[in-house]
Write a structure and sequence with these properties.
By secondary structure, this protein is α+β, with helices and mostly antiparallel strands. It is 17% helix and 34% strand. Helix 5 crosses helix 9 and helix 7 packs parallel to helix 8.
Length: 540
Amino acid sequence: MQQPPPYAPPGGAPPPAAMVSKVEMTISCEGLRDADVFSKSDPICVVYTLDGNHKREVGRTERIDDNLNPKFQKQIIVDYHFEEVQKLLFSVYDIDDKNNDITKGDFLGKCECTLGQIVSSSNFKRPLDYNGRNYGSISIHAQEQGGMQKSIKMSLKGVKLDKKDWFGKSDPFLEFHRQLLDGSYALAHRTEFIKNTLNPNWKPIKINTRRLCDNNPDTVIRVDCFDWNSNGTHDLIGEFFTTLAELEQTRPGKSFALVHPKKKSKRGYRHSGEIVVEQILVTREYSFLEYIQGGCELNFVVGIDFTGSNGDPRDSSSLHYILGNRPNQYTQAITAVGNVIQDYDSDQLYPAYGFGARLPPTWQVSHQFSLNGNPADPNCQGIDGILAAYHQCINSVQLYGPTNASPIIGNVARMARDALHQQQAKDYFILLLLTDGILTDMDQTIHTIIEASELPMSIIIVGVGDADFDDMERLDSDDALLRIGNRVAKRDIVQFVPFREFRNVPPHKLAAAVLEELPGQVADFYNSRQIAPVHDLPIG
């Protein structure tokens, strides 16, 4: 079985983009300052995004007259990007001006936070800062727009398709299109093509209903069957039309007749073959935000390369040099990624390990040791705690080798396996692995990653320094699932980037690059096992 060539129209399930959702925020306040003399304050809340010293208004609520405990009806809608730290400012004013001009109003208080903190909290409530002291509080509830999603898994086969090739049989494949508002159609999915057969059996397919029909059960879906040609001019065998509502009622064995639009008016023409549904399953598909708001936490773990190839930490050319004015690449990567993840881990305790160093007092090489020096409890408090432990550790161990990553990956896999035994979407693990070179135990690392691909965990590898990381690209299996021998990973859980590509750009660019696939990995893992959020909250 093969895929259509790259110059054919894009098909299959289009590659997932970075996680972008619309989030609706509902705001209420309690105990506001009373700024009016003869009545109560008339509050309004204005919401800004913060970027450094710049702020931009994204929306404001309605004004509520004479109320110190307002519950605003107008929702504020913002784009949610998991891979970014999205800072928000909520400013509350007492407005007496009929045009709601805040420059003519009285300031009642403000709250600064991140969108990640809001969406990861079931009850986000913070005090309002009024000139350096707390005065009243603000509560913010976030919901994802878009409504409930489903996925359709189908096994399809063709029966007695028309022969389109002169010297052989057809090479059939299917395309699924959804009808747009203007009556045109947009491609949603394409199968592989199968060579030289009129009775093809395609691989099972899975299509998200948002992509297939915009979650509308009555949207028309057109399914085309083509004969593949290497020059890209594929020949239409026939088509049929259906809807999500019909597919949800379909039972195994149902067939759809393929009709060629140019042949259907010919006398005696019935159809050009049939597409038979062998298996079909429609299931609820939860989004990443639904899992987060349902109680799933992202558990951040760090592994740092302490091998000798990093250079003497006392030398300013060392990758572990920490005495300069500029943080080294290890520090920058931990900070960039950790600043995003920390909003989704309530206890802020992060296991942090090193590998490839000799440890006092025996000076034996260790391939996994706690940065904080406590083997029984490797947890560090917050991102600052990880950095403090790293700085202390770099001055107390001897950089050595080899560069073996499989022990740390295996350790995190054990944590993830314990979490999976609960059969709940409560704990998903993210390992940030930082290394300056090619792994010495590459084969064992591949084996360990393949085992971990069945567990609730993802691995982010950042290549530090200027080494040749070509072999590391093997681990980031975007084009084909990772394999060694006869063993194949269940899914892609590794994202690799060399730090040098982000050396001269803002830190959030690195975080965006390594985290953009993570929301899809989290949601796909739990959905594939039909594990619902712990608290199944209505979204949208």
